[in-house]
Amino acid sequence: MALHPPQNTGKLIFAPANDKTNSQADQYTKGALSLDQLDPKSPFNQFHTWFTTAQQNGVHQPETVCLSTASLPSGRVSARMVYLKELDSKGFVVYSNFGTSKKAKDIENNKWASLTFWWREMERQVRVEGLVERMSSEESQVYYDTRIRGSRIGAWASRQSQVLKGREELEGWVKDVEEKFEGQEKIPIPEFWGGLRVKPEMVEFWQGRESRLHDRFQYTKLETGEWKIERLSP
């Protein structure tokens, strides 16, 4: 990664560029976005179209998404990479530990969260902001049953975000759970684990353009339940 000379500024990194022979940042040239290319009624349908296109065009794990939450009353923000596992007419679903995770603690006091998808190969980004609701155990069990056995055991064993004395402590918890469910293929979902659905109030579709003059369109949910679409300045 090429860097501009620091020139005694004290900066460790300054205006990085991807090409070692080029001191300027990359330009986005792979596409454009106009209003007539968007689904006029539903950001869910529009997301599905973009997601399918990403899958078909070699985007690496397009389901990877940054989930951000904020703690109250401090307002301190936390973000982490997770996987989108479901999309329905209500919202975007990820799965997590409800008992000990940082995100769960944030959501207890602040139901607002955001999701950010970045699809580098297509120079596209999708931003989602909305309220979070916990899915029922019955809903979550459907997805849980699709996971490999080790991941189902792991959901029981991990005390997410808790300080560990060492790797062996985690491995001990895993061993205990394996013994508990030995010989049992159908494993019930832990009561402290399941789906989090982000129900959007805003969804933005972003297409990179040259000179940072990107195309941005924002769906905003109205009180009627319909969606308003507006172009945003880059």
TrEMBL record:
<dbReference type="Pfam" id="PF01243">
    <property type="entry name" value="PNPOx_N"/>
</dbReference>
<dbReference type="GO" id="GO:0008615">
    <property type="term" value="P:pyridoxine biosynthetic process"/>
</dbReference>
<protein>
    <recommendedName>
        <fullName>pyridoxal 5'-phosphate synthase</fullName>
        <ecNumber>1.4.3.5</ecNumber>
    </recommendedName>
</protein>
<dbReference type="InterPro" id="IPR000659">
    <property type="entry name" value="Pyridox_Oxase"/>
</dbReference>
<keyword id="KW-0288">FMN</keyword>
<feature type="domain" description="Pyridoxamine 5'-phosphate oxidase N-terminal">
    <location>
        <begin position="53"/>
        <end position="178"/>
    </location>
</feature>
<dbReference type="GO" id="GO:0010181">
    <property type="term" value="F:FMN binding"/>
</dbReference>
<dbReference type="GO" id="GO:0004733">
    <property type="term" value="F:pyridoxamine phosphate oxidase activity"/>
</dbReference>
<feature type="compositionally biased region" description="Polar residues">
    <location>
        <begin position="1"/>
        <end position="10"/>
    </location>
</feature>
<comment type="function">
    <text>Catalyzes the oxidation of either pyridoxine 5'-phosphate (PNP) or pyridoxamine 5'-phosphate (PMP) into pyridoxal 5'-phosphate (PLP).</text>
</comment>
<feature type="region of interest" description="Disordered">
    <location>
        <begin position="1"/>
        <end position="22"/>
    </location>
</feature>
<feature type="domain" description="Pyridoxine 5'-phosphate oxidase dimerisation C-terminal">
    <location>
        <begin position="193"/>
        <end position="234"/>
    </location>
</feature>
<keyword id="KW-0560">Oxidoreductase</keyword>
<comment type="similarity">
    <text>Belongs to the pyridoxamine 5'-phosphate oxidase family.</text>
</comment>
<dbReference type="InterPro" id="IPR011576">
    <property type="entry name" value="Pyridox_Oxase_N"/>
</dbReference>
<keyword id="KW-0664">Pyridoxine biosynthesis</keyword>
<comment type="subunit">
    <text>Homodimer.</text>
</comment>
<dbReference type="Pfam" id="PF10590">
    <property type="entry name" value="PNP_phzG_C"/>
</dbReference>
<dbReference type="InterPro" id="IPR019576">
    <property type="entry name" value="Pyridoxamine_oxidase_dimer_C"/>
</dbReference>
<dbReference type="InterPro" id="IPR012349">
    <property type="entry name" value="Split_barrel_FMN-bd"/>
</dbReference>
<comment type="pathway">
    <text>Cofactor metabolism; pyridoxal 5'-phosphate salvage; pyridoxal 5'-phosphate from pyridoxine 5'-phosphate: step 1/1.</text>
</comment>
<keyword id="KW-0285">Flavoprotein</keyword>
<comment type="pathway">
    <text>Cofactor metabolism; pyridoxal 5'-phosphate salvage; pyridoxal 5'-phosphate from pyridoxamine 5'-phosphate: step 1/1.</text>
</comment>
<dbReference type="InterPro" id="IPR019740">
    <property type="entry name" value="Pyridox_Oxase_CS"/>
</dbReference>
